[in-house]
Amino acid sequence: MTAKETISFVYVTYIQSTPEKVFAAITRPDLARRYWGHENVSDWKPGSRWEHIRANDDRTVELVGKVVEVSPPKRLVMTWTNASQEADPDSYSRVTFDIEEYEDMVRLTVAHDDLLAGGGMAKGVTKGWPLVLSSLKSFLETGRALDVFAKPKAA
């Protein structure tokens, strides 16, 4: 048996906010839905399940995982997979949010590790994380999020 080839994705941004507000925006469903279009739902205790639920009438659970580590407001680590692949242990990747106070702002580092190289999840997160995290930054700094469902304009 050969080991799966994995990649990692890391994104760093600086946000004019506090660690508490950034952590809350990631973990509170009412805030996440405003800039992400999804709610992250869990009790946020190590070992607990979390669900990434589409914030629409259907309330589709799109992603699931387990909370690995939580140290509010500085760090959150969780496993991550498509809900349709929940039973496959090889489908899981890991997301780490590191929130560091940086003078009067926050340095947010999001690392998404153990992604199957060339897989759909890896392709999706390399496009998705920059848009979601830019929307988070806009939301916390201005109160207005970006449209995370926007598509590129046709040429």
Description of the structure:
The chain is built from three helices and seven strands; from the N terminus they run βααββββββα. It is of the alpha+beta class and 155 residues long. A seven-stranded antiparallel sheet has the order 1-7-6-5-4-3-2. It is globular, with a radius of gyration of 15 Å.
List the defining traits of the structure above.
155 residues; 7 strands
Quick overview:
This protein has three helices and seven strands. It is an alpha+beta fold and about 160 residues long.
Reading the helices and strands in chain order gives: EHHEEEEEEH
Radius of gyration: 15 Å
Helix content: 25-40%
Mean pLDDT, all residues: 95
How many DSSP H or I helices?
3
Within the largest sheet, what's the order of strands? 1-7-6-5-4-3-2
Strand content: 35-45%
Ranges where pLDDT stays below 50 over 5 or more residues in a row are none
Number of strands: 7
What structural class results from the helix and strand content? alpha+beta
The gross shape turns out to be: globular
Termini, distance in Å?
45 Å
Question: What's the story with the biggest beta sheet?
Answer: 7 strands, antiparallel
Q: Which helices and strands appear, and what pairs or packs with what?
A:
Blueprint: E1 6-15, H1 19-27, H2 29-36, E2 38-41, E3 49-54, E4 61-71, E5 75-82, E6 93-102, E7 105-116, H3 120-142
Antiparallel strand pairs: 1-7, 2-3, 3-4, 4-5, 5-6, 6-7
Helix pairs in contact: 1-2, 2-3
